[in-house]
Amino acid sequence: MASSSKTYIVEHLDPELGAWSELEYLAIARESQDAGAKFCLSSLPPSFKVPDALNEIPAFKAETRGVEELYAADKSRVCLLDPAAASDLSPEDGDKFDAFLFGGILGDDPPRDRTSELRKKGFDGRRLGPVQMTTDTAVRVTRLVVQGKTPLKEISYLDHPELKFNEHESTEMPFRYVKGKDGEPIMPEDSPKRCMNLFFHITMDGVPPLFEIYPPLINTACPWATTIEDLRDLYKCPSTGAVTTRTSLIAGFDHDPARHQYAFFNSTLTSPVQNASLNSLGYSPLTLETYLGFIRTISADLPARSSKGFIVSVTGTPEDIAASYKLIASTAQDVRFPLAMEINLSCPNIPNRPPPAYSEQELSIYLTHLRQAVAQVTNRIPVGLKTPPYTYATQYQSLISALEAAVPDDDGGCGGNERGACPISFITATNTLGSCLLLSPPPPSSPDSHPASPVLPGSGLGGMAGAPLHPLSLGNVYTIRRMLDEKGDKKLGRHVRVVGVGGVSDAAGYKRMRAAGADVVGLATALGLRGLGVFRDIEGGLEEEEGGSSGW
User: Fold this and answer.
1) Please, what is the average pLDDT of the chain?
2) Residue 454 or residue 83, greater confidence
3) Which parts of the chain span the membrane according to its record (predicted)?
4) Angle at the Cα of 383 (from 415 to 312), degrees rounded to 5?
C-alpha cells in the first residue's frame, strides 16, 4: 500500500532555468503545497541556481541526485508518466505509487525525449492521454487523478487554445490544458495575461516553434508521398509522428517520365534483396497549392484536432520560398493539425543548378528572404532546411555560418526581422548523394558483345539513397548535431532539431540514427520498397528489444 503523501518529481537536466519553466515549477510547488504533497526537481546540475521564490515554498525540494538513486531501494514505488505506456493513469494508481515522475517530453516544446531514457530504467509507466501537455498541466492532471480520485476521462480540457496578444496578433498554445471554473485554461501564473505574454515572447521573439513529432519516425519527401491517397495512408499510419509531402514548387515541376525515373538495387550487387535506390527525379509535378488542398481535405475528414502534423516540403527561388511560407502559414490557421515547411535546397539532379545548400552565400540569400516573410505574418510555423550530404569540414561550417548570420542582432538587424531568432527550427540531413551510376549487367550468354549500360535514362547519373548512404548520413547527423550543440545559445544551438535521414530500414538503423543525434528519424527508400509496413516493422523491432514496451 502506498503512503497517503505523494511526491511529484520532474527531471531537470539543463544548467539554467528558463522564465517559462520557472512559472511552471512555481505553479507545481504551490499546488503541491496546497494538496499536502511534495514537489522535487531531480538531477539538477551542481551549478543550478534555484530561484528564491521556489525555495521559499515548503513543499519544494531541489536534488542533484537522479530518481534512480533517490528510489534505488524500491523502484516499484515510482510511476513514470509516459505517452508510450500500455495503460492510462487511474485513481487506483494513487494506492499503488508514492512518487510520480515526469520526463522532458511532457513539457518541452519541442519535446526532448527524456522519458525514453527513464523508461529504460524499469519504472512502471502510465499514460495521461494522446495530447501534449505542459509540465505543470501534466502534474495537475496526475494530482487530480491520484489524489482527487477523478478518472482521466472526467477531467475537462482545452486543447491548443488560441490566446490573443493584441488586436492584430495571437498565438496558439501547442498544448492541452485543464479547463478552469471560468472556462479558461489553467496556466502557471496568477495573471493569465502575463503568462500568455511570456509565452508569446518566447515563441514569437525567441526560438522558432517546432510541433511535437511522436513517435519520432516519419517519411521524407519522396515519390511515395505524391498523391492525396499516399498522404492519407501515411497520416493514418500509427507508427509515424508526422507526414512529409513530396517536394513541390509554386508553379509545379516539369516532370518527364521518360527522363525522371528511379530504380531499386542491392548495394552489394550480389544479392537479390534490394536495399538501395538511385533516381534521376526532380520534384513533384503537382503544385504547392495542390498539396495545401490535399492537406485541407485530410483535415476536414478529422473528427477533432490532432497533434500529428504535416511537413510541407518546398523548393524554388528565394522569392518562391518566401511566398510558400506565407501560403503554408495561412493554411495552418485553417486546419486541425500543425504544419511545418521544409526547404529542399539539396536535390542533386537539377541541370545547371547545384544544390544551394552547398553554398553559404546562396543559403544566406534564402534565409534573408525567409526572415522577411516571417516578419510579415502573425502566426509563425516551423521551418526546416533539407541538406545534401556533406563530405568535408568547410561544407558543415558554411551551413552553420549561414544559420548564425540569420540570427538578428539585439537591435533587430539582419534585414528587418524584429523577432529575434534564426528562422530555422530543424535540419533534415541528408538528401541523396548525386553523380552515382547504376549499370545493368550484360546478359550471361554474350557478356562481351553487350556491355553494361546505365539503368537510368540519359547519362544514367542520379541521386543514391538507402543502405549505402547510411554511414555518410550518420556522420552528417552526428557532425551537425555536435556543431549546433557547441553553439549552446538560445537563438540557434540546441533549439535547432535534427531529422536524421539515410538508409534506415529497421529498428537497428533507427537506433543508430538516434544515437548519432537525430531528434526524429526519416526514411524514403525503405517506404518505396516495403510500403507502410516498414514503419510498423521498426516499431515492432523496438518493442521486441524492450521486452514489449515502447522503444521510441
Assistant:
1) 87
2) 454
3) none
4) 130
